[in-house]
Amino acid sequence: MAVPRTSLRGFLAQAKSSLRNAIDSSQKVTLVIGNESADLDSMSCSILYAYVRSLSPPKNAFTPLYVPITNIPAADIQLRPEYLAVFKHANIDSGHLITLDDLPPLSDIQNKLAPENTRWILVDHNALQGQLGKIYSSRVAGVIDHHDDEGKVPEDTSNEPRIIEKSGSCTSLIANYCRPKWETSSLSALSSGAAHAQGDSLSDDVAVVKRWDAAVAQLGLASILIDTANLKDDNKTTEHDRKAVEYLEAKIMLCPQLSTSFDRTSFYTEIDAAKREIGGLKLQDILRKDYKQWDQGGLKLGISSVVKHIDFLQNKAGDETDTQSASGAFLETLKKFAKDRELDMYTLMTTSTSSKGNFQREILLLAFNDNAVSAAKAFAASSKDELGLEDWHGSNSLTDTNRGDSEWLKIWWQRQVQHSRKRVAPLLREAMT
Ligand SMILES: [Mn+2]
Q: Where is the DHHA2 domain (predicted)?
């Protein structure tokens, strides 16, 4: 049975209490989870899928309600100012989001949330990582993603999708997949409103459903626009993205309160500006804001993506220390970040705009032991051409170091700027095997 139509706010409250109930009284639960970087795309994928799917669950669904999980602790929401910018439009606030804090503590999760009582749908990734992966991988029942297929999700996913396709934003794949069900449900909500209501209350009912839909549509649209630079980045934008944007924008325009005022470009500009507003964060928070980690070939790799160039980050480190040079403080923060996570290899990828207005990328690679140093060197050799790696010379004393085989630091410009972490991570992992 479908969940009654409600606002996004109402839905998230209901999902949160249903998850609590599943934990407290050992009930079944279906979780929709995005990747551990928890960028805008991952967050909106899980919410959009869970919201629409719960309106119209498939026959024999494990549970009628789908619970969207954002794969970070609640405290980390504050590292993502772009979330808050989007929440305003979606008429929700941070407290509505369902995060790792709403799951039992990892040390005890197996007992409180028995694997056999769970089904997991992966969005914006296709292999459940970390402790959750160790316990619940065999319970993954479906996937929609736009990363390389790691082959972990079974080929036959029965009544849940198994869609792994190239697209700028995974939210586009979700929106296009959900579209038929969303439309059917909106139409029936609108016509049942029409059947039962009279006069003013009829148009009220209709307006309410349109407003709810428009709020959810804005949540999805924000991610697609951020991931494709408002559909202007030809290296990333695909037909899936264009189709989804057209659909979601039309849904927003159906809402009388928005139809005259909504402008896609200013909406994009507002969210993008919020995303770049990281000056108030501490360097180590900037490093964990968009972070992913993998185990490969007995080594642990971590990659941080940052929307400012290395010189900015060094200056930040300099501002945060009284006793050290900026470059010294910067390196120490990187090493501490890696050490806290017991990494063998740590990579920092930056994006920024040059003084001439060109989009640019840097890669910084640190390796901390023999095996990691060999893997790092293998990566440097095998990926040089594809990524356009070119020696980096920054503004001050940060330079490549090579302490024998036990530690290695290398910084490049990545001239083939079309390749994001989506490509760099597999290249690094390949070099680690
Ligand atoms: Mn994504």
A: 268-432
